UniProtKB/TrEMBL annotation:
Signal peptide: none annotated. This is glucose-6-phosphate 1-epimerase. The keyword Zinc-finger does not apply. It comes from Strigomonas culicis. The keyword Isomerase applies. CDD domains: D-hex-6-P-epi_like. GO terms for molecular function: carbohydrate binding; glucose-6-phosphate 1-epimerase activity. The active site is at 167, 281. GO terms for cellular component: cytoplasm.
Length: 314
């Protein structure tokens, strides 16, 4: 086990690189404990990047990175009274607690005041015990990525309420040739049609399959895994990749892609790169988590790479 320490990358930002004995690796930044890369070895000896990171992402202090896995806490978007959008966890520096390359594991932590989770006008005493402790563990190998967040309310005075999500950007070759499956039996909140920022109005169940334009839905109480399949239109004997994305503890799934028009407004992403990713985010989004005093909450997301039938014949 190596001593935990960040190093500077080409952008001058602190990060850590962890390489598993099987050849897979992850890159995580100090700011936001931002998972920016998960590479897995291929049969041709090369590695493949499983997460999308924008080539024009802004590596600046307190500026969220576009891509990878931003950590959304304690508020999802504008669903609540707090600022900034998507919360502070993704722009604050996290402590690197442990790196165990042999096991493919890295652990990070962040402390925040209960006041930071409280709406404006709500005053919490400045007791040193009125803190929340976040512990983030990343476990990986060439077949699997498991993300776990633990939040402990150290306060003995007040409960805390929060939203959370793993805002995972999955790298794909082409949006129009990618299928999203497993959501067609789940009602959802359509953020493109909801006028109210915190709307919980549900649309009836409907197939997802493919995205051709902007897409922003929150599927509530999702009970089965989400399957992401690439190269779906190619011949059946051609190799294709399938991802199994699941959570046993986070009830909601947000599926998002900005589409061609909205992508043009992003200064930290090339116009055409909407075609290179899909976000599938497990979280506590519609119904926020309520954490009693001295209690702990845990949320996980697990991604597995499934072999196609064509690969099995190789």
């Amino acid at each position: 086990m190596t001593a935990p320490a960040y190093t500077k990358d080409a952008h001058g930002r602190h990060h850590t690189v962890v390489t598993h004995p099987d050849g897979s690796s992850v890159v995580v930044y100090e700011q936001g404990a931002h998972l920016a890369s998960w590479r897995v070895p291929q049969r041709d000896g090369k590695t493949r990047e499983m997460l999308y990171m924008s080539p024009t992402a802004e590596y600046k202090e307190r500026v969220p990175l576009r891509g990878g896995v931003p950590l959304i806490f304690p508020q999802f978007g504008s669903r609540g009274p707090l600022s900034p959008s998507h919360g502070f966890a993704r722009i604050r520096p996290w402590k690197l607690k442990e790196v165990d390359a042999a096991q493919g594991r890295a652990t990070f932590s962040l402390r925040a005041s209960v006041q930071d989770l409280s709406p404006e006008g709500v005053v919490v005493s400045d007791s040193p015990n009125n803190m929340v402790q976040l512990v983030y563990t990343i476990e990986f190998n060439k077949e699997r990525l498991r993300l776990q967040m633990r939040v402990r309310n150290n306060s003995e005075e007040v409960p805390v309420t929060f939203s959370f999500a793993f805002h995972t950007y999955f790298a794909i070759d082409e949006l129009s040739n990618t299928i999203v499956n497993g959501l067609n039996l789940t009602p959802y909140v359509d953020n493109l049609k909801s006028k109210a920022a915190e709307s919980t109005a549900l649309s009836p169940m409907a197939p997802v399959w493919k995205m051709t334009e902007e897409f922003d839905r929150i599927y509530t109480n999702q009970r089965c895994a989400v399957m992401l399949q690439e190269n779906a239109e190619k011949r059946l004997d051609a190799p294709h990749r399938m991802l199994h994305i699941s959570s046993t503890s986070l009830p909601d799934v947000c599926v998002w892609n900005p589409g061609p028009e909205k992508a043009k407004a992003f200064k930290d992403m090339p116009d055409e790169d909407y075609n290179r990713f899909i976000c599938v985010e497990h979280g506590n989004i519609i119904k926020k988590a309520v954490l009693a005093t001295s209690a702990t909450w845990t949320g996980t997301q697990e991604i597995r790479i499934l072999s196609s039938s064509a690969e099995a014949k190789l």
